[in-house]
């Protein structure tokens, strides 16, 4: 894709990114590093982070890795502490860690429902809560990765729909409560994005062509589309944008084509 932004728009910033090793959020993390941010990336398994660390270091960026489960508050508190010790501050927090699988509501166990809510919603709260003091200090910001599944209704996705509706509520609440501390809180709701783990799990290949025809812009999204939205929201270009979840879906959800 052609160069869109000026160089180094995040120079000197420190970004703490959960789920930052792979997928959409991995792309966002790499894009931040390409724009001069120093990264701390967090995942349950350190091996999920190694490829991203190598990629970032190969172009001269800095990447600190921490293994922590967003469901465990103490582990996240510790990851935040280690990041502040390592870089001296945190300016941007991205909540990208997420769980997903397809399951009909009448087959889903209470623990299956709760597991996804714990990862997506409680995990987002945990990371926001644990980073509050650091963000207050830096007048930083939070970017929550959401979805459009819950705008209408998405069969087989009751757990993720409920979880992401909760994430959107967190975005709105914290933008109001923490805006007064100079902390901006926004979200991005990606639509159908190709080449992601989520799409591989959720989309049967034969459905892809059918779905493509229904997307108003006539194509699947690319991880780069989400990277660009994330760069805009976290840059000074969006310094008066607070409490928004920016939908990046080619207009799909308006036609009820968010997934199938
Ligand atoms: C039904 C399932 C299931 C499945 C797990 N469970 N997988 N139920 N169908 N395929 C149930 C289990 O039976 C169990 O309940 C409970 O969930 C917890 O499962 P565990 O495997 O013990 O949990 P854990 O190891 O913590 O793993 C949770 C996980 C995780 C959610 C399955 O492994 C995961 O999310 N992996 C995928 C990560 C991923 O794809 N991330 C990208 C998300 S994309 P019982 O009752 O049996 O104990 C995204 C975008 C959404 O979020 C928008 C898309 C358009």
Task: Please describe the topology of this protein.
Elements: E1 14-18, H1 23-34, E2 38-43, H2 47-58, E3 63-67, H3 73-87, E4 92-95, H4 110-138, E5 141-145, H5 158-179, E6 184-190, H6 197-202, H7 205-214, H8 223-234, E7 245-248
Parallel strand pairs: 1-2, 1-4, 2-3, 4-5, 5-6, 6-7
Helix pairs in contact: 1-8, 3-4, 4-5
Bound molecules: hexanoyl-coenzyme A.
Hexanoyl-coenzyme A binds next to helix 4 and helix 6.
CATH architecture: 3-Layer(aba) Sandwich
CATH fold-type name: Rossmann fold
CATH superfamily: NAD(P)-binding Rossmann-like Domain
Q: Largest sheet, order of strands side by side?
A: 3-2-1-4-5-6-7
Radius of gyration: 17 Å
pLDDT average, as an integer? 95
CATH class: Alpha Beta
Give the total of beta strands.
7
Whole-number tally of structural domains: 1
Structural class: alpha/beta
Give the CA-CA distance, first to last residue.
28 Å
Q: Characterize the overall form.
A: globular
The unique ligands bound to this protein are: hexanoyl-coenzyme A
């Amino acid at each position: 894709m052609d160069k869109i932004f000026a160089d180094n728009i995040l120079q000197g910033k420190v970004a703490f990114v959960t789920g930052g090793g792979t997928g959409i959020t991995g792309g966002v993390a790499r894009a931040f590093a390409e724009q001069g941010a120093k990264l701390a990336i967090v995942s349950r398994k350190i091996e999920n982070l190694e490829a991203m660390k190598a990629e970032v270091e190969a172009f001269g960026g800095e990447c600190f890795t921490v293994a922590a489960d967003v469901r465990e508050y103490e582990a996240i508190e510790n990851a935040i502490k280690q990041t502040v010790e390592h870089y001296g501050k945190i300016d941007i927090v991205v909540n990208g860690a997420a769980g997903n699988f397809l399951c009909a509501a009448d087959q889903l166990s209470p623990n299956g429902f709760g597991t996804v809510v714990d990862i997506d919603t409680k995990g987002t709260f945990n990371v926001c809560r644990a980073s509050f003091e650091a963000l207050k200090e830096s007048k930083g910001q939070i970017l929550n990765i959401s979805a459009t599944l819950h705008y209408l209704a998405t069969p087989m996705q009751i757990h993720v729909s409920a979880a992401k509706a909760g994430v959107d509520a967190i975005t709105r609440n914290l933008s109001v409560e923490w805006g007064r501390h100079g902390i901006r809180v926004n979200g991005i709701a990606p639509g159908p994005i190709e080449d992601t783990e989520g799409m591989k799990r959720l989309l049967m290949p034969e459905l892809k062509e059918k779905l493509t025809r229904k997307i108003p812009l006539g194509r699947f999204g690319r991880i780069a589309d989400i990277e660009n939205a994330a760069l805009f929201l976290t840059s000074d270009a969006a310094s008066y944008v607070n409490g928004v979840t920016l939908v990046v879906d080619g207009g799909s959800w308006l036609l009820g084509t968010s997934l199938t």
